[in-house]
Predict the structure of C2 domain-containing protein.
Amino acid sequence: MLSCTLFINLRFFIDWAEMSSSVGVCMELFELRIMGEQMGLLKVTVVQGKRLVIRDFKSSDPYVVLKVGNQTAKTKVINSCLNPVWNEELNFTLTEPLGVLNLEVFDKDLLKADDKMGNAFLNLQPLVSAARLRDILRVSSGETTLRKVIPESDNCLVRESSINCINGEVVQNVWLRLREVESGEVELTVKLITPVASSK
């Protein structure tokens, strides 16, 4: 069914291009259409947390829950630690345009509901824009800085973050400040893996 849909879309765009003599614009629109239908992958490594809040008697048993669209994944629990190191990779399949990566930290409890330890979010649009720039620049090897994102009032960044292309993969390392809590930061490494647009 997908191949049939793509063939119909291709036929439509080629016919339109022949009528308007705008082959370049046609192919760009068609490539964007394909990118929207093909499956990509968002790989998020939850690296570590720092200065997390106490939710038990003297410590906490933290774990992280990530959400992208309607997909949810969580890390393992680190017992009795306010500076946990997870180094755990969580993967999300991309079937719709990327928006926001939401993050929540919880304290695991056995006899009652898990306590909240703060939340944060990461806007994924700069990552998407960087992937498009990678295709325009035809970067496929080595390491290249594509753009930088600075802390602002509408994001949770602790410090400036670079988005790099490393051997064709678009990668962003971030420290996020937890909200609705006294203290706490979480480090993530985010990789956006999408088909590289072919150059003509």
Remarks:
- The first helix runs from residue 2 to 20.
- The beta strands are 40-50, 62-68, 71-74, 85-94, 100-107, 115-123, 143-149, 161-166, 169-177, 185-193.
- The longest strand covers residues 40-50.
- Confidence is low (pLDDT under 50) at residues 1-38.
